[in-house]
Specification:
- By secondary structure, this protein is α+β, with helices and mostly antiparallel strands.
- The chain folds into 2 domains: 314 residues, Jelly Rolls (Sandwich); 36 residues, no CATH class.
- It has 12 helices and 17 strands.
- Strands 2-3-12-9-14-7-6 form a 7-stranded mixed beta sheet.
Length: 362
């Protein structure tokens, strides 16, 4: 099967990216990348193995009688809506940070609401290079110009079961960093990793730009180092499913092949049926709209699938802690998060213990 003509121009420009430091900052997560030419053979294989008809196909919705819980839904006017001030974010952390939450309409007035639409974004950043998500950690890293990705989503991407997805890590010296002037980062109280300089090799990647078409998304996972995350939907709609941390990895990944995001959502009812009544009551299944900002609690399983032909979001990982100054400065970090960091990277934990005054595991 030959690659469709609409994709031919894009295929020429797409190529796999080997490890390449940026302005002195190393990127250990890229160091294991395997270089491989991107050509028609790869496209043909994807087309044969991962196609859907019609192109608007989406996974099934879950029946209401399954007894799932509800996401904490806040309005910008709510005193506990995180993101607006330290005081309000502190109230949010104290009351809601251990539950999935969404602040509806947080970013309605951001310039990015208009500037990140399909035509405008391709016009302004069409020649910029963006990284695409990988199927596994050992898979090659794919890089392409945004204009070529736009061609893809209008041709092959219309029919792919799991379309390619821009998952671009953004540094402060990234050529596209001017995009960060087009939205306002939410105020998040007490992020543990903020004590580590962004250019320190020990600081894990934490900020990503996400661009995808219908059915693209992220497979069920827990964020690394016990971190939580905020995710702002700028254009398009996203479907989110979050499951509590006590559900085993084996069960979460049991219903489909790994990294088949479409299949995971399609078979979600089979997974939910194996949970206890108490576990189901903690699970949430909801949609984020343009302007919404979602809170993913630490260690929660979550999967996301894009519902719109052009969906753009920005996300950051954070490690929140609770601070007390009476009778002395103490910064309380959940023991499970501390153990997660120690297990992943002992040097990172040693750096935090040295850098963060009054750090206490609870």
């Amino acid at each position: 099967m030959a690659a469709p003509a609409g994709f031919a121009a894009a295929a020429v420009a797409l190529h796999f990216l080997a490890h390449r430091p940026r302005h002195g900052r190393k990127s250990p997560w890229r160091a294991r990348a395997v270089c491989q030419a991107f050509g028609p053979g790869v496209v043909d294989h994807v087309n044969v193995m991962e196609r859907v008809h019609p192109p608007r196909t989406l996974p099934h919705s879950l029946p209401l009688q399954l007894g799932l819980g509800s996401v904490v839904s806040l309005l910008p006017t709510d005193p506990e809506a995180f993101g607006y001030s330290l005081e309000r974010s502190k109230l949010f952390v104290e009351k809601h940070s251990c539950r999935p939450a969404v602040v509806r309409g947080f970013g309605h007035e951001w310039p990015s609401t208009d500037l990140w639409r399909f035509a405008a974004l391709v016009r302004d950043f069409g020649e910029a290079q963006f990284l695409l998500s990988r199927k596994t950690f050992d898979s090659p890293i794919l890089e392409c110009e945004l204009a070529d990705y736009a061609s893809y989503v209008r041709s092959d991407g219309l029919y792919h079961r799991n379309p390619l997805y821009v998952f671009h890590e953004m540094f402060n010296d990234d050529p596209c960093m001017e995009m960060l002037d087009e939205f306002e980062s939410p105020v998040i109280i007490n992020d543990l990793f903020s004590f580590i300089d962004e250019y320190d090799d020990l600081r894990p990647p934490y900020r990503w730009l996400l661009i995808g078409t219908r059915r693209s998304g992220t497979f069920a996972h827990q964020d690394p180092h016990g971190s939580a995350a905020w995710n702002a939907t700028v254009t398009g709609f996203k479907r989110w499913v979050m499951l509590p941390p006590d559900i085993s990895k084996e069960l979460v990944l049991s219903t489909c092949e790994e990294h088949d995001t479409f299949g995971w959502f399609q078979n979600l009812e089979t997974l939910i049926a194996q949970l206890s009544t108490e576990q189901r009551a903690q699970c949430v299944d909801f949609i984020s709209a343009p302007g919404d900002i979602v809170w993913v609690p630490s260690e929660w399983w979550h999967a996301v699938i894009n519902l719109s032909p052009w969906t753009v979001a920005i996300t950051e990982n954070v490690v929140p802690f609770v601070e007390s100054t009476s009778p002395q400065l103490c910064r309380y970090l959940p023991n499970s998060v501390a153990e997660n960091i120690k297990k992943k990277n002992t040097k990172l934990w040693d750096c935090l213990k040295h850098s963060v005054e009054g750090l206490v595991e609870v």
